[in-house]
Design goal:
The protein has a single domain, classed as Response regulator (Rossmann fold, 3-Layer(aba) Sandwich), CATH 3.40.50. The chain contains six helices and five strands. It is an alpha/beta fold. It has a five-stranded parallel beta sheet. Strand 1, helix 1 and strand 2 form a beta-alpha-beta unit.
């Protein structure tokens, strides 16, 4: 498993962010877990660190059903960011949606590794974090 993994959680639910942060923090080798409650906030954050590769998240867990900017709208803007950032980050859609259309739409984005259903506790986090 990689050392010092930097995680970015993007979910409009503070409760989900709290729970997911608690689950992820139990894993070894986590250096930082940042939570954002909107896609816009996350894009602003990522844009602000674009020249600081050390600050790049290694893994992004992205909710898709969010007010203001959906996860898919986030992805549409995310893919226009610097290749150095987008090539570095692994994105996992993390959603309560069981809609196959959402899962299929997620597959249209090359930056998305997998569509996971909430809660995160049902997934082998260590395995996800060590995937290439």
């Amino acid at each position: 498993m990689a050392k010092n993994i930097n995680i970015l959680l993007i979910d409009d639910s503070d409760v989900d962010n709290f729970i997911n942060k608690a689950i992820i923090s139990k894993e070894d080798n986590i250096s930082q877990i940042t939570t954002m409650t909107s896609g816009r906030e996350a894009l602003n954050h990522l844009s602000s660190i674009i020249d600081n590769t050390e600050a790049y998240p290694d893994v992004i867990f992205l909710d898709i059903k969010m007010p203001g900017m959906s996860g898919f709208e986030f992805l549409n803007e995310y893919v226009t960011l610097s290749d150095s950032l987008t090539d570095h980050c692994k994105i996992y859609i993390l959603s309560s949606s069981l809609d196959n259309l959402d899962s299929e739409k997620g597959k249209e984005y090359s930056v998305v590794k997998k569509h996971l259903t909430k809660p995160l506790a049902h997934h082998a986090i260590g395995d996800l974090l060590s995937e290439d």
